[in-house]
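Progress narrative, work stream C.
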Amino acid sequence: MLRSSGIGLFSLLLVGFLMAPNPASAELAGHGGFVKGVAVSPDGRQALSASFDYTVMLWDLERQAPLRELNEHEGAVNAVAFLPDGQALSASDDGTLRLWDLASGTVLHSFEGHQGKVAALAVSPNGRIAASAGWDRTLRLWDLDSRSAGAVLKGHASNVNGVAFSPDGSLLASAGYDATLKLWRVADGTLVGSLEGHEFAVNGVAFTPDGQRLVSASVDESVRLWDVATGDTLATWSGHEGPVFSVAVSPDGRLAASGGRDGTVNLWDLEDGRFLRAFYGHDAPVWSLAFTPDSATLLSAGSDELVRVWDLASGKEVAANGAAIAASETLPQDRPGAKLFAKCAVCHTVGPEGGNRAGPPLHGLFGRRAGTADGYKYSKALKNSDVIWNAETIDRLFAEGPDVYTPGSKMPLQRMPNAQDRADLISYLREITGPKEP
């Protein structure tokens, strides 16, 4: 009814980007962490991706090759959008939205106001207003012309996960952990209705091009189609095994796509509600989806650190000409510390050619001063650190916790209270990170 009203054990900082040639791949590969957001430019020639590794990457979509890395956020980046005049917008766990000049890769402005993670963003059809969804239970409007804060929309009882503008820009739809979708009037920020029917948190929302319907994705494993005017559920689609995290509608209004924890992308016919096909390729949750302007191709972003490009007619991945992900490192698994290092391996490489991921490379770790790995963007706290990594300092890091031993660093709060576990991890690190540095 319509009624009124995350990083591994050694993640000491953020992001670099890792690439090696492998022309057989059919992905946009280069991030060192989950890819949380993806967007396609209005002309269909470029894409943006947002990652847990704190970076945004700009891609040549035809060549599937990286053009630029944008690295100024102080937390995971969750959403991205193209703007007119060669600009882009990104939203992050650091509570900010950043306005970028894509030609130079510089930050033009930082929008601040959210008291917590910014989970999603949307840009009005005319490109003049942005809306952001935050884990402080608010939505916020931003004037992109004057680069100033607008209305703060309060109405959700919990975190807000998704946001979308109607095609005419007059309405805003939001998706919340409180299992509701809410409709807001953009002109004055008034709450005009609440759509209820999902059993659990709603993660994503998208308008159809005619503005008359909404599509939503939920933790309750369903995708729902709504009538905007009445608030009625028009269809409920089940096809994912587990929570559904993302949803998108094709520009021609014929298709809806959904992505879930099961790593599957499902395609639905909006005209008759039929399930059309599933795309299998991700081996981890799918967080974001974006259609190309011609509605012929779909991009999906996943926890496998990839953006995959799908041809909708054939159901196959589009062949890549450029970007490819580096081969996985093979590490000994028969050591006591191997399981303990598994979480670290998500965000750190250990080989001499590994490079940066969500955290700095660990090759040559023992004997190295904290904050000095080449090419990695460290926090000021680590850059100015006098810590030398060795058995004693690594032991203290996990015994005391990074908030105590390296205060001000970006490493998540985590401790390893068991002394034998710490010893096993340190022994394993000695083996896999190579020779000591002087």
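Work stream C, second folded protein:
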Amino acid sequence: MTELSSFLLEHRQILLSSHFLGLALGLGGATVTDVLFFNFLKDFSITRKEADVMRVLSNIIVGGLVLLFVSGVLLYLSDIPKYNASPAFTAKMLLVMVITLNGILMHKHIAPHMMHLSFTSKSASMKILHHRRRVAFGMGAISFTSWYFVFFLSMFKRLLPVTVGATDILLVYIGLALIAVAVSQRMERRMRAKSQR
């Protein structure tokens, strides 16, 4: 065992606490963001103030994600053989990468146009607006599903059968994510239909 591994192993409790704190911030931020997003859209529009609130929450999620990733890497380095043999840990870190990529795309392509996601917005052509809103709904569904899946993996990994591998876990995740995206698209269509009445 290297000196670094020994040092990290001695401070494993701190790393675990940081890991769960990052998870709590990310999961809580994602949950509140989704709840507020749909609450803000009750009147079919998002104001500048509401968009600012969403940006603050996004920053909290990013902070949680960074903490989760850094602490996860340090935990891995503390006992590489153990974590290499853990399908749940492997799947969880891959999902953190999915969350990161999804977050980067949302920050780059969705956040700058938050107010234009309104169902009453006339600032862009209807085709572009409709596409952007559907993408936002879909990416939000992926974020929500990913954070909750990581949470359940972290909390209940001991309940997984020993025969379950990382591929099995990821296939379940993909199935749930596809269902979530389908539901989000249905919600977007229903809200659009209501706004046009």
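The two ends are 67 Å apart (CA to CA). No further action is required on this item.
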